[in-house]
Amino acid sequence: KLPLAIKWPNDLYCISKENAENSPTLKKLGGTLVNSFSNNDHILLIIGTGINVANSLPTASINQLIDEYNFKNSTRIPKISMEEILAFLKNYTINTGYILVTLKNHDYDKVKIIGISTQNGYLIAESLDSTKKKYELHPNGNSFDMTSGLIGQKS
């Protein structure tokens, strides 16, 4: 039995005992975010989900739950590494190389998404021109306008 609970409508919590009193507490493990845009008679929904894998306080992570489970049950389930996550994403992401966007803050350079950084998890984009210049697209500080395929600095 997994110690998980859903906090309506979009958060996933786990029951953790990693505190000074060793008492059960709820900690956020992940969640879902939905953004919607309307344009004339079209509605565009962007749905994203995330699971905390290796981060620490104040939330919980899959690796923290693995540690707690191993301690409680005298098992040796291995933690999930960043390399395993990136390999999974690379193998199962169908749109790598297909998403074409324009970078507003870089002279409107047209780029395609080619992967995910192994250093920090940011998207890596490559210029479509002959320079093949690479960019790391940081989630904080950039906004993605899906209706026009434009990435620019948040205002």
Automatic annotation (TrEMBL):
UniProt-recorded Gene Ontology molecular function terms: biotin--[biotin carboxyl-carrier protein] ligase activity
Species annotation: Smittium simulii
SUPFAM superfamilies: Class II aaRS and biotin synthetases
PANTHER family found in the cross-reference section: BIOTIN PROTEIN LIGASE, BIOTIN--PROTEIN LIGASE
BPL/LPL catalytic domain ranges (all copies): 1-101
Protein name (database record): BPL/LPL catalytic domain-containing protein
InterPro entries: aa-tRNA-synth_II/BPL/LPL, BPL_LPL_catalytic
Cellular component GO terms held in the UniProt record: cytoplasm
